[in-house]
């Protein structure tokens, strides 16, 4: 598990970070040929990232989660994730959606997941009421209404990679907030091995080192 401390993905900074985001994704998929999923916080941002990625890397095969997909369409999406070490397949999906939980892509059907942003829920009156409720109880309303539900979606998406005791894969957390004290205390125990990278070169070196070690059995 790797965390990119050098890529801010707050709502105000996303557009500015777009190039760094797609570069980090491309760095992940070029370290090892295989199948990958990228999870984003909304369809709007997903489409922006996909457009930028396809313009920069048109040779990469990509598939996209569409809104209101039928069960058959969802199954067709997942069927494309076959064990294939000859080319890269990159899927884009939404955090909290049908592909972020309850799917089983074992072995080389899924080699890695990138999660872009800390997954904060969209601002709305219902969530704000929940925040105010906890604030009035002298608790951290933002944490209970926004941060923890967002993290739950992150945990669900990250869990798509390792589905059995023999699975091997990469989880890439793209958002500098993941490396801060506001988030690390809530990480599950097995995330203690997460490594923070501070630039593209560190990310690349860690990815290649990880896969080299797995290939040599170390």
UniProtKB/TrEMBL annotation:
Keywords: ATP-binding, Helicase, Hydrolase, Nucleotide-binding
GO biological process: nucleobase-containing compound metabolic process
InterPro entries, alphabetized: ATP-dep_Helicase_C (IPR006555), DinG/Rad3-like (IPR045028), P-loop_NTPase (IPR027417)
GO MF annotation terms: ATP binding; DNA helicase activity; hydrolase activity, acting on acid anhydrides, in phosphorus-containing anhydrides; nucleic acid binding
Pfam families, A to Z: Helicase_C_2
The ATP-dependent helicase C-terminal domain, residue ranges: 43-180
Keyword check for Nucleotide-binding: yes
Family statement: Belongs to the helicase family. DinG subfamily.
Protein's recorded name: DinG family ATP-dependent helicase CPE1197
Record organism: Ligilactobacillus salivarius cp400
Phylogenetic classification of the source organism: Bacteria, Bacillati, Bacillota, Bacilli, Lactobacillales
